[in-house]
Amino acid sequence: MTTVVLADRVTAGGDEPTRFDPIESWYPVFYIEDLNKLNPTPFTLLDRDLVIWWDSQAQEWRAFDDRCPHRLARLSEGRIAEDGLLECPYHGWAFTGSGTCDRIPQQLPDAKAETSRRACVKSLPTAVDQGLLFIYPGTPTKATQTPIPLIPVPMVEGQPKEGWVMLNTFRDLPYDALTLLENVLDPSHLPYTHHGSVGKRSNSSPVELAVTRSDKSGFTGTWADGPRKGTLGRQNTTFIAPCLMWHALTSKQLGETITVVYATPTRKGECRVFARFPFKFGSKIPAFFIKATPQWYSHINNNAILEDDQIFLHHQERYLEQSGGGKNFSQAFYLPTKADTFVFEYRQWLNDYQADPFPGQTFPPALPPEQLLDRYHSHTKNCHSCSKAYQNLKTAQRAIVIITLIAWMGTTIFTLVGGENALIPALISIGIVGSGSIAWWSCDRLLMRLERGDRIPARNRK
Fold first, then answer.
1. 19 CB-side CA count, 13 A
2. Is residue 265 exposed (0-12), middle (13-18) or buried (19+ Cβ within 10 Å)?
3. Is 0.85 topped by the overall pTM?
4. C-alpha–C-alpha distance, residues 314 and 292, integer Å
5. In this structure, what DSSP letter does residue 445 have?
6. pLDDT of 295-316, one tens digit each?
7. Which terminus of the chain is more solvent-facing, meaning fewer CB atoms within 10 Å of its CB: N or C?
8. Residues whose CB falls within 8 Å of the CB of residue 129, separated by 6 or more in sequence, listed in order
9. 58: helix, strand or coil
10. What is the pLDDT of residues 202-216, one digit of tens each?
11. Strands (E), 281-346
C-alpha cells in the first residue's frame, strides 16, 4: 500500500475542466479482510488485468499489470517466494515491490538482463483506507494529489468508531458500473423492486427529488419528504465521481442511517459493487443483533437483495444501447416525474464530462438467468467469511454422513444380535439417523444459498 498524503488536492478525473477521465481516480478493489497475504490475487480494473500481492519486505499491498515481461504469463498464477518477491509461474523471474526484476534463473551468473527496463513490471499506486484497498490506474504522479473517495463515517483501522456499527458486502455484478449507479441513485424503485426483502409496495408515494449542487466532482441532492411516506424525514444524496454515492438520513426510529455504494468498473457490462451500511442507533439493542449475526449469513440476505433487480438491469442496459446508448438517454427513457431527477442528473453528468469508462465498446451477449444468479463465483469464493462457511458446511456434511452411517450400522447390528434388549438402542440409532438426515439437508440448503440465487424474487412471492 502507498501511504497517500493528499497535499495540494485536485479533483479526480484529470486536469481538463470539461472532461472527467475515469482512469484518473482511486477505485476500491477489495476489502482488506478478504485478501490473502500468502497468495497473489487477480483483479480486472477498467479492462486492465492486475495482480494484487502483499510485499512483506515493505509491508505494503502492491498492484502490478498481470503479465510477466518475459513471455506474458499471468503473474497471478505464480507465487510469493520465500524472500517475499513475486515470482512468475512460467520461468521463475522474480519482482520487487517497485516492479523491478530481481532475478532471471536462466541467465549466466555474470549476466545482468534483469537490470533492463524491459524486465520490469508496471506498478500502480495503492492505498488502504476505511478497510478497503484502493488502486489508482492513472498517471502515478497524480495519485498523491487526488482524493480517495471515502464515506462520512469516523473510522479507526478500518472499523467504525464506538457508537457506529457497519455492515459490509461486495459482489461482482453482470452489468455496468454506470447502470449500478443509475439504479442506486433512484430511491423510488425500492418499494416495488425490493418488495418483500427491504421494501414494501404500501410505502410507495410521490417522490420529489432536487439537485442542490452539480459540477465535475459529482453532485448532491435531497428528498425533502424522505422514504416511507415521509415518516423518516429528509434524505440527502451525494455522488462523488466517478464511483461513490450514498443516501443519508437521521430519524428518531433508526438514528443515523447511511446507504453507501461503490461501483468499480471491471469490464464493459461488469462491475464490482461494495455496499456499506453504517448505522448509529439510539439504542444498543439493534447494534447487538447486527454484530451477533454471522457475516456470511448477512451476505446471503445481501445477495438476495442485489438479485431483486439483477436480471432486468442486465437486459435494460442492452436495450438502452440498442436505443442509441447513454448519449441518447433522454429519448430512450421517458422521465416525466421528479422521482427520476437523480437518474437524469447522473446521465447528463456522464455526457457533459465524457465520463464513460468504456467509450465505443458494446455489451457482450446477454447471459442466461442461471449465470446471472451465480453467487459462488461472483461472491462466495472471494469472501473470507462466506468461503470459510462454505468449507465448514461441506466438512459438516461429511461428518454427518459418517455419524449417520455408524448409527445405521449400529441399528442393524443391535437388531440382529440384541433380541429384546435391542429396542432402545435401535430407537436411539434411528433417531440419530433421522436427525442426521435433517442436519445434512439443512447444510445443503445453506450451501445452495451460497452457490446461487432464487429465480423467483421476493416481490413475486408475496
1. 10
2. buried
3. yes
4. 34
5. H
6. 999 999 999 999 999 999 999 9
7. C
8. 4, 148, 150
9. coil
10. 999 999 999 999 999
11. none
